[in-house]
Amino acid sequence: MRLRTHLSFANVASATALVLVLGGGVAVAAGLAPNSVGSAQIKAQAVKSSDVKNNNLKGKDIKESSLDTVPSVETVQVGDVVTAAVGSAPVTVRTEGPLTISLRCVDGGGGVVQAFLEIRTSADNAFFDAAPHGLTYGDLDVFAGPQVLASTNSGSPAIERASFYAGTGVQAATLQGVGYVGSKLNGTVGCATQLTFLG
After folding, report:
1. Rounded distance, CA 152 to CA 86, Å?
2. How far apart are CA 175 and CA 164, in angstroms?
3. Which of 61, 76, 109, 198 could lock 57 by a disulfide, CB 3.0 to 4.6 Å apart?
């Protein structure tokens, strides 16, 4: 039997169709135009994470009400603004177990007003750290008295960021948060603080 040595139109067309199918041109070979696949052609639950380009979805693509609460943010509490007059007794900002955070406002003389955000404990062998990413903890005991978490130290309106966590014994942190402490704010001679506590 002799093979034909010339190509016909039918041979070329069928070979081209086969190449399209095997080479990734399935949509074209199946009669779909480029960019014609939409929601109607996609089966429910068919798109996987690997089908979506990393960092390609934007905030507007997400329906916020469909998101669950993030566990680590579930107990975030924004505290009230706490104020203290110059020379007054320390004002309690928050008490958690044996740990108490307070605001103290001091007249430094010459128009200098200082704000001190302090922590104390009613149980020995507690710890605190005013720099949460530090490698060591400060010892916090009853006899040590209040320890400074943050303070302002200038005569002009001043504000200082506070970032801290504390605990007792070998337990995990039982009191942690971030916030601000300020002195001589908004034209008043006094001190104020507002902290956000993380559970």
Report:
1. 13
2. 8
3. 61
* Residue range 156-169: mean pLDDT, rounded: 80
Tell me: the pLDDT tens digits for 43-66?
776 677 666 676 566 655 666 666
Distances (CA, A) of 162 to 44, 136, 184: 49, 17, 17
Asked if the structure places residue 62 within a domain, the reply is no
| Per-position b or e across 171-183, b if 16+ CB within 10 A of its CB | eebbbbbebbbbb
Q: What per-residue confidence (pLDDT) applies to 71?
A: 47
Evaluate whether residue 64 is within a structural domain: no
- State the pairing for strand pair 77-78/190-198: antiparallel
Q: 158 with 101, same domain? A: yes
> Is the pLDDT score of 181 beyond 70?
yes
Distance of CA 96 to the CA centre of its chain: 23
Cα separation, 151 vs 154, in Å, equals 10
The pTM for the full model equals: 0.59
pLDDT in tens, 17-30: 555 455 554 555 45
How far is the C-alpha of 191 from the C-alpha of 92, rounded, in Å? 13
Instruction: Match 């605990």 to its residue by tokens.
Output: 167
